[in-house]
Amino acid sequence: MKGRLALVTLVLAYLCLLPGFIGQMKERPIEVKLGYQPHARVIRLVSGEFSPLVAEMSVVNLLFYYGTLVDKWQKNIIIRPEYMNMFRMLSTVSELDPYNQDAYYFAQAAFTWELGRVKEVNMLLERGMQFRTWDHWLPFYAGFNSAYFLKDYAAAAKYMQRSAELSGDTLRTKLASRYLYESSRTSMALSFLDGMIAREKNAAVIKTYQVRKEALQAVDTIEQAVLAYRQAKGGNPAQVSDLVASGLIKVLPRDPYGGEFYLDNDGRVRTTSQFANPDQR
Amino acid sequence: MSKFAVLIQVNLKTILRDRILHAILGAVVVGLLLVPAISSFSMRQVQELAISLALSGISFFLLVMAILLGSSSIWRDVEQRHTTSVLTLPLSRTTYVLAKFAAIAIFLLGTGILLGICSIPLISVAAASYPSDQPILWGNLVVALCGDIAKSMLIAAMALLLSSISTSFYLPFFGSVVLYLCGSASQEVYEYVTGEFVRAMHPLVIVIIKSVYCLLPNLAAFNYKVQAVYALPIPFEQIAWSVGYGTLYVAMILVLAVLTFNRRVLG
Amino acid sequence: MNPILIERISKSYKGKKGQRIQALSELTLEVKPGEILGVLGPNGAGKSTTIKILTGQIPPDSGTVEILGAMAGSMQARSAFGYLPENPAFYDFLTPREYLHLVGAAFAMSVDRIKSESDRVLALLDLQTDSDRPLRGFSKGMVQRLGLAQALLHDPDLFIWDEPMSGLDPMGRALVKGLMLELKRRGKTIFFSTHVTADVEAVCDRVAVIVGGRLQALNDVQEILADGIEGYQVQILNPSAELAARFSASEDNGVMTELYVSREALPGFLDLASRGGEDIRLIEPRRRNLEQFFLDIVSRNQR
Fold first, then answer.
1. Which of A62, B29, C17, C82 could form a disulfide with C151 if both were Cys (CB 3.0 to 4.6 A apart)?
2. Do B43 and A63 count as a contact with CB atoms less than 8 A apart?
3. What ipTM was estimated for this complex?
4. Chain B neighbours among C 138-157 (CB < 8 Å)?
């Protein structure tokens, strides 16, 4: 009897404690850290048959980490991300499981725009192409990177050709050539981003793309206005506010990265944010 | 029924009636049920991750069972004096050892197939939620599952061999764990020493490593997970080599176990 | 053909610190058809070693053992007897019936025969109600009875039992003693080890005493019992003065007097008592029983 009474008392006390405890646990800061990962060869030896799974779990871990960062960025909390560590982890993953597409796609998503490590990303994509011989997206990304970031049109054409062959989509070669020779860089990037967003399911990555897209759309709007201004007035506007003043734009678009748009001496649209989060500048 | 069949039956009953086994099996089934949820965390590899998780989960379960069952078999019978009553019957020690292995092998095969069937709907659900650009080659999955089952049988045979020598849990358990780890890594090490870094090593070291490589079980031979996950082609020849290698290796280990146990003085 | 023929077997073990322990030396023993032979000996005398050699669990260092003409340890020899190990241990996830099935299969019995014989031996050892319960929950005595049941299953002509009475309650002991006598009546041979002399007295035809790995005595039990009578305990109601003077009273409570009469003096005592019309209530032989016989041998060897 005494024992039962004690048990009931303890259970009741526990139930009383729980809400407060859970609330307090929620308040605790989440440790946003990627941690250290050993050398790929060591992991391969230890994980043996499970190395593809270890690889994928590392990517998932990375995605979680990235998700918390994007979350913080939206709340304007800036945490210095472990970019070096992230990239090292991705190349480790590609060594553990060279077929893992998440590694390549995430590298494309996170390391090109924000960090400008396009050469490294293209090397990773090249590695992926050796294994994922059927995957037409990898050469497509590499092609886009070559054209948009590196302005290496010859390499880009080669990649795009390969992508077109793999996808069996002849339109893509045409599309590619249009990208490369006819379009402005901004609309090239915009249609690339649309494609990426449509195929993406990770919320954090989509968010990154959307912010980028918003910025590029703003640039596009201003660029169009500059073009119209030039046609109307035969010269470049001195500053972006001239566009509003002349009625070509109603309201100046906002830079989602928190910067302010301005025009350089050649009339190109620039922003004080340099299209990056404050910590990456 | 033959003596052999009845002994297998008895051993199977002993395996199946163990509560610890029920607990582990329950945990694995719960784990498998989580496969669709966990695989949704991937960006584009939902289907791939689901297959990888299901196969790895089954493989890990089979591995744990092989090590536990194999390494708690013969020495425990000796220690608990079951052998006094069983081996004084007109049953040969050879029959006894082979029946032990057969029971474990049947168990591994049965649970492997069962868990494999369980994971079909789970993989399908995950794959349907975010279709991959690669198809699911169910034939590849079957090959991978059979590879994992074969691998666990080989480990069980190893553990059985060690437990036929041992008088306690430690040697067969840790011995088979170490053999598993070495067997998983042996191909990797072999490729390393025969590859780019070969010049940096003393030739004698390479000879030693190569001979150890030949002695150790090569578990990479049974690993078809990558092919199953990414729907890569599996040449028939590769499967045939694996089957031949596995059969011979297991037979060798079993003969060794029978010989050592026949020489062992009990009582 | 003798059921068991042991000829000059020796066995030594490696003991602690590398020294060798001689468990058996030059043991020779013959078990005749239809007899119950009990092996008596203190702990560590070599009884268990003998049984292990008989059942083929260990080979002797030298000497030979034949079981119904077959080499001990051979498949033929192992098929010929029903063996009960000392404190038997069986796979405890199995039920008695399942275990008996294994035993029956080992003796190449048909499924039908296994079924009918299982019913028979389970009934014989009073295990029917527990026959489908796993052995995990069994008491020591129940396991011992299952041990006997499995030894009886294939109805061999020879039984080798190591300490068959251990772990049994008085009812169980009585059951086993009755069983042994019944088997003997059916012409079976039983070879068993024990350290309880009363068991030997109750059922054995012959007793072998092993001490220090050697056979110290092999006797007919009835002869030992007969030879062992030293005198008689007599109770007389109000003995006459003459009788009381000739034989010293060991106890006298005023009504009943207890006298000790030696073996030699018995005829004289009976003569005197019948002449005096004494009221003899009880005459009980006082013998040097098997226990003393056994203890004498042991102490002689330890000296």
1. C82
2. yes
3. 0.88
4. 147, 150
